[in-house]
Design brief:
heterodimer, A: 210 residues, mainly alpha, two-stranded antiparallel sheet, 11 helices, 2 strands, globular, B: 25 residues, 0% strand, rod-shaped
Chain lengths: 210, 25
């Protein structure tokens, strides 16, 4: 990856922004400023504009800026709170907050629901679930017959769609996810508990001239 | 009798959902 001299970008987020984010998320001020180190690294990896573009997000996730993935696209879209096609630092912090180990499970369940509600209709439809199953099978180079895929979708709807109306609504999802906590394991990132350890560069010269 | 597979368990294995990779970039 090309490297960029520190002169070309701000070394720390504007103080008021960092303080507000620290006040409104589970991150401390120190952790917000450490997240800024990570954000800079990702947001300058391809386009030198301090914003995370989808290619940069894909590069950070997969080491491949061109690799398409339905679920990474959904995460990117949910992080892009202003829906302007890029992830800004504030959006990055507020979204990663959901993945903090100390963030309440209800917030993680709600985020996961929005993630899987591909078309944003307010419920997870059969077709959406089938599309996601086909996407993960394709990603894993797994071949299953259409019947087998239908069976998996049927089986899941039987468990989750309590009122059998053909879609999973937020309450049904909450009930289902609470009974199957393993489904939410990737909604928590232990890294976030010691983010300042992962990005010590902030701590070493914090405030000192370079 | 095949193990009853849950679609969301399958989906949760996607690399696209493993944001831990962001920290190793």
């Amino acid at each position: 990856m090309g490297c960029v001299s520190s002169k070309q970008f701000r070394r720390a987020p504007p103080h008021e922004d960092a303080a507000l984010l620290a006040k409104e998320t589970t991150f401390s001020l120190n952790e917000v400023e450490a997240l800024y180190e990570l954000f800079k690294k990702i947001s300058y990896s391809i386009f030198k504009d301090g914003l995370i573009h989808k290619e940069e997000f894909q590069l950070a996730l997969f080491r491949n800026s061109n690799r398409k993935n339905l679920f990474a696209d959904r995460i990117f879209d949910l992080f892009d709170l202003k829906r302007n096609g890029v992830i800004e630092f504030e959006e990055f912090v507020r979204s990663l907050h959901i993945f903090h180990p100390d963030t309440p499970m209800a917030d993680k369940i709600a985020f996961a629901f929005r993630l899987y509600d591909l078309r944003g209709t307010g419920s997870i439809e059969r077709e959406e679930l089938k599309e996601m199953v086909l996407a993960i099978l394709n990603e894993s180079d797994l071949l299953l017959s259409d019947d087998a895929v239908e069976q998996i979708v049927d089986q899941t709807f039987k468990q989750a769609d309590l009122n059998s109306d053909g879609r999973i609504d937020p309450d049904e999802w909450k009930e289902f996810a609470s009974k199957n906590p393993a489904l939410l394991k990737n909604m928590t990132l232990p890294y976030l508990k010691d983010i300042t350890m992962s990005f010590p560069s902030f701590v070493v010269y914090s405030g000192a001239g370079d | 009798e095949p193990v009853a597979l849950n679609a969301f368990e399958l989906i949760s294995m996607s690399a696209g959902l493993n944001l831990g990779n962001l920290f190793d970039s």
